[in-house]
Specification:
homotrimer, mainly alpha, 8 helices
Chain lengths: 208, 208, 208
Amino acid sequence: MEQLFYLSDLFGVAVFAVTGALMAGRKSMDLFGVMVIATVTALGGGTLRDLILDNHPVSWIRNDLYIVVAALASIGTVLWVRMTRPIPETGLLVADAFGLAVFTVIGCEVALQHQVPVSTAVIMGVMTGVAGGVMRDVLCNDIPLIFHKEIYATACLVGALVFIGLRELSTPHWLDTSVAMLTVLLIRLAAIRWHIALPRFHLLNRNE
Amino acid sequence: MEQLFYLSDLFGVAVFAVTGALMAGRKSMDLFGVMVIATVTALGGGTLRDLILDNHPVSWIRNDLYIVVAALASIGTVLWVRMTRPIPETGLLVADAFGLAVFTVIGCEVALQHQVPVSTAVIMGVMTGVAGGVMRDVLCNDIPLIFHKEIYATACLVGALVFIGLRELSTPHWLDTSVAMLTVLLIRLAAIRWHIALPRFHLLNRNE
Amino acid sequence: MEQLFYLSDLFGVAVFAVTGALMAGRKSMDLFGVMVIATVTALGGGTLRDLILDNHPVSWIRNDLYIVVAALASIGTVLWVRMTRPIPETGLLVADAFGLAVFTVIGCEVALQHQVPVSTAVIMGVMTGVAGGVMRDVLCNDIPLIFHKEIYATACLVGALVFIGLRELSTPHWLDTSVAMLTVLLIRLAAIRWHIALPRFHLLNRNE
C-alpha cells in the first residue's frame, strides 16, 4: 500500500511536469525554462505546503527521485513533441486528474499528521493539488487557469472533505484513500466531459 | 487590550479579503478564484513574515477563525455586489487604511519578539501590511498597485518607525500601538484625499 | 578568505539591486517600488533557498548590512540615472556575471552544509543565483528573462557542478571556489559576447 502510494506520487510528479513543459513550450521558452516550469508545476504545491506547515525536510530535498522524474518527464515531453507527434490531449487530461487526486490526498494526510484543525487540512489538500499549477501560470505571465476555467480546485475540495470525513469515521486507510481519490477523479472527469464551470463574478473595471 | 487587538486583526483580515474579492471580480474569476484571491490578500503578508522569521505555527494554521472570516468576507462581497448595490468606495478605502495600520503594528511586534535588528522589524511591519496586496496583484497578472500609486507602503514605513521608536522609549503598550496605528491611518487617508504620490523613476525601455 | 567571500557577497547584493532598480525604472515605478524590486532581486534567491533548506535565521534577518547595501544601491541607481549619465551597459553585465558567480557558489556551499544529495546542492546553487531575478520579472509582470534569453542559468548549473565535483575531490577551499566562480563568469561572458542561447521549445498555442 505504502509502495503503491509512493509510485502514484511519482506518477503525479511526472504528469504535472508534462503539463508544465507543454505550457512552457506554448511560451517558446528555452530548455532551461522548460525544466524550471515543469519542476515548479510538479513540486511547487507540495513545497509550499511543507513550508507553511514547517514540515522539514521538504520531500525532494533528501530524495533525488522527485527531481529526476520531473526532469526526465520534461525532457521526454520536448523529444516527443519534436518528433511531431502531438500529445494526446485526452490522455493527458485524465492523467492530470489522477495526479490531482493523489496530491490532494497526500496534502490532507501530511496536514493531519501536524494536528491542525479540519479546515486547515482541507486547505492543505487543495493547496498541494493546485498551487504548482498556479505558480506555473504566474511564471508564464497568465492569470491562473484554475481561477476562471472549468471545475478543478473544487474537485480537490470535495475530495479533501470526503477524505477527512472518512478519517473521522476511522475507516481503513486503503478505503478512505481510494474513495477520496475516486471522488476527485470523477468530479474532474465529469467537469472536463461536460464543461462544467463554477459561476463567475463579473465586476466592471472602474477607474480607481 | 489584547482582545481589542485580536478583534482589530480579524477586522483587517475581513477588509483585505473584500479588496481581494473585488479585484478578482474585475478579472471575472469564478467563485473559487474569488476565495483564493481574497484569502491570499488577507493572510499572505502575515504568512510570508512568519515563514521568513521562522515563526511557527503560522497564525491561521491552528486558528480556524482567520480562514473563516476571509471566506465569509469574500462570499459576502459577491452577494452584496450581486444585489447590485455598489460597494461604497470611500468606506472601503478607510477600512483598508485601518487594516493596514493594524497589520503594520502586528508585523513589527512579531518581529521584535524574535530579537531582530530595528531595520528588520521595520521591514517586517511593512511586509505584513503590503505583501498580501502584492500577491493579489501578481495572481491577477497586474503590476502591483503599491509600486506606482499614491502613498501606501510609505504610510506603513513611517508607522513602523514610530512604533519602534516609541518602543525604545518604553512607552506603555497601549500608547505606542495607538500612536503608530494613527500615524499609518492619517498618512494613508491624507494620501487618498489629496492624491499624494511618491516621485516616479522613469527609464526609457531600451532593447536589451 | 572568509572576509573576501563576505565582501564578494555584498558586492553581488549591490549589483543585483542595481539591475532590479533599473528594471523598476523601465516600468516607471515610484521610489518605494524601486527599493522593493531592488531588494527582492538582491535577496530573493538566497531567502528562498534558506526557507526550503530550513536554514534559519535567513541571512539578512540578523545582519542589517544586506538590506542597507541593497537600499543604498537602489537609491544610488536612481540618483545616477537622474543626473542623465546612462549606466554603462557592459560594465553592468560584467558586474552582474560576477554577482551570479558568487551567489551560485554560496548557494551550493550552504546546501552542502545541510547534508543534501548532490543534485539538491546543484539546484540550490542555481536557485540562489537566478531566483531573485525571476521574482523581479514576475513582480514587473514580465515572463522571466532567463527562461528565453541567452545562457544565464546554464552558467550557474555548470559552475555548481564544477564546484561540487571539486569538493568531492577534496581540493583546497580557495581552489574549488575560485575555479567554480571563474567557470560561471567565463560561460556567462562568452554567452553575452557571442549571443549564445539555448535551443527553444516552440509549441503552437492551441485553444484549450
